[in-house]
Amino acid sequence: MKRKWGTLVAFCVLGLIAAGCQTNPVTGEREFNVFSVEQQEQIGAEYAKEVEKELGESIKDSRLQNYLDSVGQKIAAVSHTPSEGFVYKAIKDESVNAFALPGGYIYVTTGMLAQLKTEAQLAAIFGHETAHVTLRHSAVGMSRELLISTGLSILVPESQSISYAVGIVRDLEGMSYSRGHERQADEIGLDYLVKAGYTPDGMVETMEILNSQPGGRIFEFLSTHPNPENRIEDIQERIYNKGYTKYKSSGRVGQGEYQSNVSSRLGQ
Ligand SMILES: [Zn+2]
Predict the structure, then answer these.
(1) Ligand 1 centroid to residue 222 C-alpha, Å
(2) What pLDDT score was predicted for residue 94?
Protein backbone atom coordinates (compact mmCIF):
# COMPACT_ATOMS: atom_id res chain seq x y z
CA MET A 1 0.00 0.00 0.00
CA LYS A 2 2.78 2.33 0.99
CA ARG A 3 4.54 1.64 -2.27
CA LYS A 4 1.40 2.40 -4.21
CA TRP A 5 1.23 5.85 -2.63
CA GLY A 6 4.85 6.45 -3.41
CA THR A 7 4.24 5.60 -7.04
CA LEU A 8 1.20 7.85 -7.12
CA VAL A 9 3.09 10.78 -5.57
CA ALA A 10 5.98 10.29 -7.99
CA PHE A 11 3.50 10.22 -10.84
CA CYS A 12 1.85 13.46 -9.65
CA VAL A 13 5.20 15.20 -9.29
CA LEU A 14 6.16 14.16 -12.80
CA GLY A 15 2.79 15.37 -14.02
CA LEU A 16 3.26 18.74 -12.34
CA ILE A 17 6.72 19.14 -13.81
CA ALA A 18 5.36 18.29 -17.25
CA ALA A 19 2.55 20.81 -16.74
CA GLY A 20 5.13 23.43 -15.88
CA CYS A 21 7.19 22.81 -18.99
CA GLN A 22 7.52 25.30 -21.81
CA THR A 23 9.41 25.42 -25.06
CA ASN A 24 12.40 27.74 -24.90
CA PRO A 25 12.02 30.41 -27.61
CA VAL A 26 15.75 30.30 -28.45
CA THR A 27 16.81 26.67 -28.09
CA GLY A 28 13.44 25.07 -28.93
CA GLU A 29 13.93 22.68 -26.02
CA ARG A 30 11.29 21.80 -23.45
CA GLU A 31 12.26 22.96 -19.96
CA PHE A 32 10.78 23.47 -16.52
CA ASN A 33 9.43 27.02 -16.45
CA VAL A 34 6.22 27.70 -14.55
CA PHE A 35 6.08 31.39 -15.45
CA SER A 36 4.09 32.58 -18.45
CA VAL A 37 5.34 35.57 -20.45
CA GLU A 38 2.74 37.73 -18.67
CA GLN A 39 3.90 36.55 -15.24
CA GLN A 40 7.53 37.20 -16.12
CA GLU A 41 6.49 40.71 -17.12
CA GLN A 42 4.69 41.15 -13.76
CA ILE A 43 7.69 39.91 -11.79
CA GLY A 44 10.02 42.15 -13.80
CA ALA A 45 7.80 45.18 -13.20
CA GLU A 46 7.84 44.52 -9.43
CA TYR A 47 11.60 44.11 -9.38
CA ALA A 48 12.07 47.20 -11.57
CA LYS A 49 10.36 49.34 -8.90
CA GLU A 50 12.67 47.94 -6.24
CA VAL A 51 15.76 48.36 -8.40
CA GLU A 52 15.01 52.04 -8.97
CA LYS A 53 14.21 52.55 -5.30
CA GLU A 54 17.12 50.65 -3.76
CA LEU A 55 19.90 50.17 -6.29
CA GLY A 56 19.90 53.51 -8.05
CA GLU A 57 17.37 55.95 -9.36
CA SER A 58 16.66 56.19 -13.04
CA ILE A 59 18.66 59.01 -14.66
CA LYS A 60 16.55 62.05 -15.43
CA ASP A 61 18.13 62.78 -18.79
CA SER A 62 15.62 61.97 -21.48
CA ARG A 63 18.10 62.38 -24.34
CA LEU A 64 20.46 59.83 -22.80
CA GLN A 65 17.64 57.45 -21.85
CA ASN A 66 16.04 57.70 -25.31
CA TYR A 67 19.37 57.03 -26.94
CA LEU A 68 19.99 53.94 -24.77
CA ASP A 69 16.51 52.64 -25.47
CA SER A 70 16.89 53.22 -29.23
CA VAL A 71 20.10 51.15 -29.24
CA GLY A 72 18.43 48.47 -27.12
CA GLN A 73 15.38 48.35 -29.39
CA LYS A 74 17.62 47.54 -32.38
CA ILE A 75 18.79 44.47 -30.47
CA ALA A 76 15.26 43.58 -29.30
CA ALA A 77 13.97 43.80 -32.89
CA VAL A 78 16.33 41.04 -34.09
CA SER A 79 15.93 38.89 -30.96
CA HIS A 80 13.89 35.67 -30.73
CA THR A 81 11.04 37.46 -28.94
CA PRO A 82 10.81 40.95 -30.50
CA SER A 83 7.26 41.54 -29.27
CA GLU A 84 8.18 41.06 -25.63
CA GLY A 85 8.29 44.78 -24.82
CA PHE A 86 11.92 45.29 -23.81
CA VAL A 87 12.90 48.38 -21.82
CA TYR A 88 16.51 49.63 -21.66
CA LYS A 89 17.40 52.09 -18.93
CA ALA A 90 20.32 53.68 -17.11
CA ILE A 91 20.43 53.98 -13.33
CA LYS A 92 22.67 56.13 -11.20
CA ASP A 93 25.19 53.79 -9.64
CA GLU A 94 28.97 53.84 -9.60
CA SER A 95 29.45 50.10 -9.75
CA VAL A 96 30.20 48.68 -13.20
CA ASN A 97 27.07 46.69 -13.76
CA ALA A 98 24.37 45.63 -16.16
CA PHE A 99 21.57 43.17 -15.61
CA ALA A 100 18.26 41.93 -16.92
CA LEU A 101 15.05 41.32 -15.02
CA PRO A 102 12.42 38.85 -16.23
CA GLY A 103 10.00 40.41 -18.69
CA GLY A 104 12.74 42.35 -20.49
CA TYR A 105 13.68 45.16 -18.09
CA ILE A 106 17.33 45.76 -18.84
CA TYR A 107 19.46 48.07 -16.74
CA VAL A 108 22.91 49.51 -17.15
CA THR A 109 24.64 51.61 -14.48
CA THR A 110 26.33 54.97 -15.00
CA GLY A 111 29.50 53.24 -13.77
CA MET A 112 29.28 50.89 -16.73
CA LEU A 113 28.40 53.62 -19.22
CA ALA A 114 31.48 55.58 -18.10
CA GLN A 115 33.69 52.63 -19.08
CA LEU A 116 32.34 52.25 -22.60
CA LYS A 117 33.47 54.21 -25.66
CA THR A 118 31.23 53.15 -28.56
CA GLU A 119 27.63 52.33 -29.39
CA ALA A 120 28.73 48.85 -30.53
CA GLN A 121 30.09 48.14 -27.02
CA LEU A 122 26.81 49.30 -25.47
CA ALA A 123 24.87 47.17 -27.97
CA ALA A 124 27.04 44.20 -26.98
CA ILE A 125 26.02 44.60 -23.32
CA PHE A 126 22.38 44.89 -24.35
CA GLY A 127 22.80 41.85 -26.62
CA HIS A 128 24.12 39.74 -23.75
CA GLU A 129 21.40 40.88 -21.34
CA THR A 130 18.62 40.55 -23.92
CA ALA A 131 19.79 36.99 -24.55
CA HIS A 132 19.45 36.16 -20.83
CA VAL A 133 15.79 37.21 -21.16
CA THR A 134 14.99 35.41 -24.42
CA LEU A 135 16.80 32.32 -23.14
CA ARG A 136 14.53 32.50 -20.07
CA HIS A 137 17.47 32.12 -17.68
CA SER A 138 15.80 33.94 -14.77
CA ALA A 139 12.40 32.34 -15.30
CA VAL A 140 13.90 28.85 -15.36
CA GLY A 141 16.10 29.67 -12.35
CA MET A 142 13.13 30.99 -10.39
CA SER A 143 11.05 27.95 -11.32
CA ARG A 144 13.77 25.73 -9.94
CA GLU A 145 13.97 27.72 -6.73
CA LEU A 146 10.22 27.46 -6.35
CA LEU A 147 10.38 23.75 -6.95
CA ILE A 148 12.98 23.39 -4.21
CA SER A 149 11.45 25.76 -1.67
CA THR A 150 7.83 24.70 -2.03
CA GLY A 151 8.27 21.04 -2.82
CA LEU A 152 5.98 21.61 -5.77
CA SER A 153 3.00 22.55 -3.60
CA ILE A 154 2.13 25.34 -5.99
CA LEU A 155 2.64 25.98 -9.66
CA VAL A 156 2.22 29.78 -9.43
CA PRO A 157 -0.54 29.89 -12.00
CA GLU A 158 -2.48 32.76 -10.40
CA SER A 159 -1.46 36.36 -10.27
CA GLN A 160 -1.78 36.48 -6.47
CA SER A 161 1.01 33.94 -6.23
CA ILE A 162 3.42 36.24 -8.03
CA SER A 163 4.30 38.30 -4.95
CA TYR A 164 4.87 35.02 -3.12
CA ALA A 165 7.23 33.90 -5.86
CA VAL A 166 9.02 37.24 -5.79
CA GLY A 167 9.37 36.89 -2.03
CA ILE A 168 11.10 33.57 -2.40
CA VAL A 169 13.54 34.79 -5.00
CA ARG A 170 13.71 38.32 -3.64
CA ASP A 171 17.45 38.62 -3.59
CA LEU A 172 18.68 39.80 -6.99
CA GLU A 173 22.03 38.19 -6.39
CA GLY A 174 20.19 34.96 -5.81
CA MET A 175 19.29 35.11 -9.48
CA SER A 176 22.86 34.58 -10.52
CA TYR A 177 23.55 32.61 -13.67
CA SER A 178 25.62 29.51 -14.21
CA ARG A 179 28.75 29.57 -16.31
CA GLY A 180 26.87 27.71 -19.03
CA HIS A 181 24.20 30.40 -19.02
CA GLU A 182 26.85 33.10 -19.38
CA ARG A 183 28.40 31.37 -22.35
CA GLN A 184 24.99 30.94 -23.96
CA ALA A 185 24.15 34.63 -23.40
CA ASP A 186 27.50 35.60 -24.94
CA GLU A 187 26.81 33.47 -28.02
CA ILE A 188 23.21 34.52 -28.61
CA GLY A 189 24.05 38.12 -27.63
CA LEU A 190 26.79 38.16 -30.27
CA ASP A 191 24.27 36.95 -32.88
CA TYR A 192 21.90 39.77 -31.94
CA LEU A 193 24.72 42.32 -32.08
CA VAL A 194 25.72 41.32 -35.60
CA LYS A 195 22.11 40.97 -36.82
CA ALA A 196 21.44 44.49 -35.58
CA GLY A 197 24.22 45.73 -37.87
CA TYR A 198 27.04 46.25 -35.38
CA THR A 199 30.64 45.15 -35.57
CA PRO A 200 31.23 41.93 -33.59
CA ASP A 201 34.32 43.64 -32.15
CA GLY A 202 31.91 45.46 -29.83
CA MET A 203 31.50 42.25 -27.82
CA VAL A 204 35.23 41.53 -27.64
CA GLU A 205 36.07 45.11 -26.62
CA THR A 206 33.39 45.10 -23.94
CA MET A 207 34.86 41.94 -22.43
CA GLU A 208 38.32 43.46 -22.50
CA ILE A 209 37.09 46.62 -20.78
CA LEU A 210 35.34 44.57 -18.10
CA ASN A 211 38.36 42.36 -17.58
CA SER A 212 40.50 45.39 -16.86
CA GLN A 213 38.23 46.41 -13.95
CA PRO A 214 39.53 45.91 -10.44
CA GLY A 215 37.98 42.82 -8.88
CA GLY A 216 35.72 42.57 -5.90
CA ARG A 217 32.81 44.53 -7.28
CA ILE A 218 29.62 42.74 -8.02
CA PHE A 219 28.79 42.98 -11.63
CA GLU A 220 26.78 40.53 -13.56
CA PHE A 221 29.23 40.25 -16.42
CA LEU A 222 32.10 38.73 -14.53
CA SER A 223 30.62 37.54 -11.27
CA THR A 224 29.91 34.03 -12.45
CA HIS A 225 32.76 33.47 -14.84
CA PRO A 226 36.16 32.64 -13.38
CA ASN A 227 38.00 32.54 -16.70
CA PRO A 228 37.36 35.79 -18.56
CA GLU A 229 40.19 35.14 -20.99
CA ASN A 230 38.51 31.92 -22.11
CA ARG A 231 35.35 33.87 -22.54
CA ILE A 232 37.00 36.22 -25.03
CA GLU A 233 38.49 33.23 -26.83
CA ASP A 234 35.06 31.65 -27.07
CA ILE A 235 33.64 34.84 -28.57
CA GLN A 236 36.49 35.12 -31.07
CA GLU A 237 35.90 31.51 -32.06
CA ARG A 238 32.20 32.10 -32.64
CA ILE A 239 32.93 35.22 -34.71
CA TYR A 240 35.11 33.05 -36.93
CA ASN A 241 32.84 29.98 -37.04
CA LYS A 242 29.68 31.95 -37.78
CA GLY A 243 31.36 33.93 -40.56
CA TYR A 244 31.04 37.22 -38.68
CA THR A 245 34.61 38.25 -39.50
CA LYS A 246 33.39 40.16 -42.56
CA TYR A 247 31.30 42.44 -40.33
CA LYS A 248 34.32 43.52 -38.29
CA SER A 249 35.01 46.39 -40.68
CA SER A 250 31.55 46.93 -42.18
CA GLY A 251 29.53 46.77 -38.94
CA ARG A 252 28.47 49.92 -37.13
CA VAL A 253 30.79 51.29 -34.42
CA GLY A 254 29.08 54.53 -33.42
CA GLN A 255 31.87 56.23 -31.50
CA GLY A 256 30.72 59.81 -32.17
CA GLU A 257 27.11 58.94 -31.35
CA TYR A 258 28.11 57.39 -28.04
CA GLN A 259 30.32 60.34 -27.20
CA SER A 260 27.61 62.95 -27.81
CA ASN A 261 24.66 61.00 -26.38
CA VAL A 262 26.31 59.35 -23.38
CA SER A 263 29.91 60.26 -22.49
CA SER A 264 29.55 64.04 -22.81
CA ARG A 265 26.26 63.95 -20.90
CA LEU A 266 27.92 62.08 -18.03
CA GLY A 267 30.47 64.88 -17.87
CA GLN A 268 33.26 62.98 -19.62
ZN1 LIG B 1 25.27 37.46 -18.07
Answers:
(1) 8
(2) 85
